[in-house]
């Protein structure tokens, strides 16, 4: 890379030829692209994909930091990108999502103007077709620490100060689909957040991606995270036994298991809160009854 960059967009790509060219063009169109690097961790790229990246590197020197790797889990690629990034601010940017031209600049301005804020996020539009700009607007909530600890409210376009990774750690590599949710909760617990006003981009939901595909992993890993941070009132007990197979109080980075307390020293105040535990115990029989009744209704 040529000059030091202000923003690093972290991108993991596997089998992305359908999206790659338009995605990179969207990156180049960002109003702050001269201060941005795209850290593209490319899993088993095809010849076509390599040629696309090479062409953009010639057209936009210094924009793309291209890292070619064998196929690896998404969270591993994200951590690889974080370690390779040089930006003061970092953000996730999926190759099948598109941003409005000033998305990165407005988010960086939010962090610039609020030195005590650790991360920012904002509104986005869910679309069903690639490159569509018509869909359902998701209006992000204003930051509230306790609420944001209990759900994934940051959306797909959040940005944070890279320096925070020194205290809250990297993404948990034991998770298949829930890494962004878990990391967002850690951000909310440890740092302050602030919403960036206006639409940030277009989130593609074709039901094919890791976070939008219709598989049980999302529900299982949501349960893992709810158990990890004491969000017992939201538990779906159907997934409890499968969630318990994870190392709930450990974070996996680079083959090393770290105790959750290293990154979130206060987690016990949530996970061992007697009120939340008793609430979950009280709620279980009602949950079970509802499951049974639903099953009976479906049989008729």
TrEMBL record:
UniProt GO molecular function: hexosyltransferase activity
Ranges in a coiled coil: none
Pfam families attached to this UniProt entry: Glycos_transf_2
Domain Glycosyltransferase 2-like span(s) in chain numbering: 8-132
Entries under InterPro entries matching the protein: Glyco_trans_2-like (IPR001173), Nucleotide-diphossugar_trans (IPR029044)
PANTHER family for this protein: GLYCOSYLTRANSFERASE, UDP-GLCNAC:BETAGAL BETA-1,3-N-ACETYLGLUCOSAMINYLTRANSFERASE-LIKE PROTEIN 1
Protein name (database record): Glycosyltransferase 2-like domain-containing protein
């Amino acid at each position: 890379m040529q000059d030091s960059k202000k923003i690093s967009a972290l991108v993991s790509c596997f089998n992305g030829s359908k999206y790659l060219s338009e995605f990179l063009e969207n990156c180049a169109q960002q109003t702050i692209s001269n201060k941005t690097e795209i850290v593209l961790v490319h899993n088993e790229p095809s010849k076509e994909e390599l040629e696309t990246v090479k062409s953009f590197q010639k057209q936009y020197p210094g924009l793309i930091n291209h890292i070619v790797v064998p196929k690896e889990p998404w969270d591993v690629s994200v951590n690889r990108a974080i370690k390779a990034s040089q930006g003061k601010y970092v953000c996730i940017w999926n190759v099948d999502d598109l941003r409005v031209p000033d998305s990165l600049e407005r988010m960086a301005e939010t962090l610039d103007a609020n030195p005590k804020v650790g991360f920012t996020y904002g509104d986005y539009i869910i679309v069903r077709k690639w490159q569509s700009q018509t869909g359902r607007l998701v209006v992000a909530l204003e930051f509230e620490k306790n609420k944001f600890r209990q759900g994934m409210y940051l959306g797909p376009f959040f940005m944070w100060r890279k320096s925070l990774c020194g205290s809250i750690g990297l993404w948990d590599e034991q998770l298949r689909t829930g890494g962004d949710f878990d990391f967002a909760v850690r951000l909310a617990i440890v740092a302050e957040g602030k919403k960036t006003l206006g639409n940030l981009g277009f989130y593609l939901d074709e039901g094919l991606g890791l976070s939008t595909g219709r598989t049980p992993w999302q529900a299982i890993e949501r349960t893992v995270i709810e158990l990890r941070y004491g969000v017992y009132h939201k538990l779906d007990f159907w997934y409890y036994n499968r969630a318990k197979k994870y190392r709930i109080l450990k974070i996996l980075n680079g083959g090393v298991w770290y105790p959750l307390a290293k990154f979130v020293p206060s987690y016990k105040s949530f996970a061992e809160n007697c009120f939340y535990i008793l609430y979950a115990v009280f709620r279980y029989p009602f949950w079970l009854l509802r499951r049974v009744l639903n099953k009976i209704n479906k049989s008729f």
